[in-house]
Design goal:
heterodimer, A: alpha+beta, Butyryl-Coa Dehydrogenase, subunit A, domain 1, Butyryl-CoA Dehydrogenase, subunit A, domain 2, Butyryl-CoA Dehydrogenase, subunit A, domain 3, 3 domains, four-stranded mixed beta sheet, four-stranded antiparallel beta sheet, 11 helices, 42% helix, globular, B: Butyryl-Coa Dehydrogenase, subunit A, domain 1, eight-stranded mixed beta sheet, two-stranded antiparallel sheet
Amino acid sequence: MSDLDAFRAETRKWLEANCPPAMRKPAVTEADACWGGRNFKFQSKDQETWMRRMAERGWTVPTWPKEYGGGGLTKDEAAVLKQEMRRIGAREPLVSFGIWMLGPALLKYGNEAQKHEHLPRIARGEIRWCQGYSEPGAGSDLASLRTKGEDGGDHYVVTGQKVWTSYADEADMIFALVRTEPDAPKHEGISFLLIDMEWDGVSTKPIKLISGKSPFCETFFDGVKVPKANVVGKPGEGWSIAKYLLTHERTNIVSVDSGAFAGGDPKRVALKHVGAGDDGRLADGVLRADIARFEIDALGFFATLERVKAEADTGQGVGARASTLKYVGSELNKRRHELVMSASGADGLLWEGPEETDGMAARNWLRSRANSIEGGTTEVQLNIISKRVLGLPDA
Amino acid sequence: MSFKLSEEQAMLRDAAREFLAEKSPVSELRRLRDEKNPDGFSRQLWSGMAEMGWLGVLVPEEHGGIGFGAVGAGLISEAMGRSLVASPFLSSAVLAAVAIREGGTDAHKAEHLPKIASGERIYALAADERPRHDPAAIDASAVRDGNGFRLSGVKRHIPEGHAADAFVVSAMLDGEVALFLVEAKAEGASTDARALVDSRYAADLTLNDVKLDGGALMSSGEAAQKALDAALETGRACLSAELLGAGETAFDATLDYLKQRQQFGRVIGTFQGLQHRAAHLHSELELTRSLAFKALAALDAGTPDAPMWCAAAKAKATAAGRLSASEAIQMFGGVGMTDEFDIGFFYKRAQAAGEFLGDDRFHADRLAKINGY
């Protein structure tokens, strides 16, 4: 038996013994996901048990080094863990911006003190992070951000406003881009700061979306004192870190597996609401064709994801190709929700009702409109592909 | 399944690209057309491809082939697509080879597969009878006659069928599908060649009470259907790879043009209106590449999802191949409409290769059926 086979057998056994049955079904509602943090309320005892058991093995962040609370697994082992979790339908024990974004940034750019202070807390779900990038005047043109950090000796005094900070009202800390070198060129005067949301001068305000939900906030900094020890990388290096993370985020947005389509699979919804004719085929021929074309593109997307990952493993790197995946994946997800709405007919228009899932189709559909805006708009992705993949010249 | 090619496969890909780029660039297709070559392909190139071993890519080693499987055939097809190589490769080395390999008797395999591999004779699969691909619609029929059969019907749109020495013909026998091996010279059999838009030829095969001996029957019923399906799926995956090769090459030419053509005092590749279309097309070709490989690999692995991948691949490759060539014409502008530029050849071939063995609409509907709606 190879080492990997042994690892698989051991992992399977451990998961069987340690994953509570209630955690062996996909997360459907927002409350099904465990985000962690100082104020997080577990949905159930099982949710807490599952997260803690996984965290103890470092498997909430399987590939991070053990000294920072990770599992120290190789890529292959992490893939086996994922496969074995999928085999029993186990949901992610912990999700967070700390895992997806800050962690990778600290691993690459952080100093030892920062790694030891923050990474284990992310891994154990103790601190929930949010991201402070966009500002009212800095969306696609992110580098024009104006939140400023004035030099106060051993600290910066931060003043300004961030927008689209996801879950800022529930987060414990924020990693933010702040202009600390006002005289430097646009891209070179930005620093990457770690700020506690409980510090004086930090406040948040939720933004209500067309979906009726408020996953995003505005976050205000009013003379917040941030120690210089909380600068990740060097002062002025913030833009490089942000670019690295955006690429990471794009890969992330698209790293949904087909399980992510559960509950919103257009063909299932159509068969339920429209039904099949005598020939056993979906009774609406045009809808059938539209769904089939969607499925072909979805197959192509997942196959491409698999191919890009395989090529990345051989050292070719994902790089700018993440933009292709981000573009295709987010447009595809919007199309999926449009098809689900169309297939549901007027039933899909339901906004609220006695069941927890009532109104979910419409709200998810509305939420999906943001897919091609957040993390770099579709238009920005197309710019990146044009220039960095295709080598087309700047204007 | 891995997207990585084995060392042998990578060598095959490189050899195919190099050989065909040198021996059969697009100018070769232009030459064949301009001199009204009656074959529509070069016999010399065909011998060269045989010498490289490619005509036996799907033929097992015991029958004189190299047995490289569908991925191997796809890599050759992709290279052929890159310079629009005209040849009976699809008909003989892919469709007929798989039909005989999967549906022939031991005697058929021993007699015909080595001839396919050596290029000594050209074979073709005669499956369609309608303008649009519909291999299930079979009016051709065989009746038993002593120890043999009598076969009648009209099989249509056989790529390079005019050059075929023998055909694998689908026909109804006793109410079931059956496959027959029919010599082109058999009495009552006739072909007529038609020049197509892509400067290649297809033929209709008319079978007028053709007398066949008992040994002409390859298989019938479920076995015949399975062999026919295997041949068609392999053909679809290979055409997807060909469309990918053609689509990527047309796109590369377009990109080069965008980087040098000047209007309004600027290189037109600086215009965002064109950049975004190019980026979208690039993404479509990326999906096509992934799907074509998935389909070919699934065929080699023999997994039950192979038909789904083949349907998805052919649908996507047809649409993306068409988009690539039509965007090329639009972005080249007026010169893209001239015969002097090669882009027109790509546009025409994309239409023909898209139509053969089912276009994007045919395969979208098939995928829906496979997936239960």
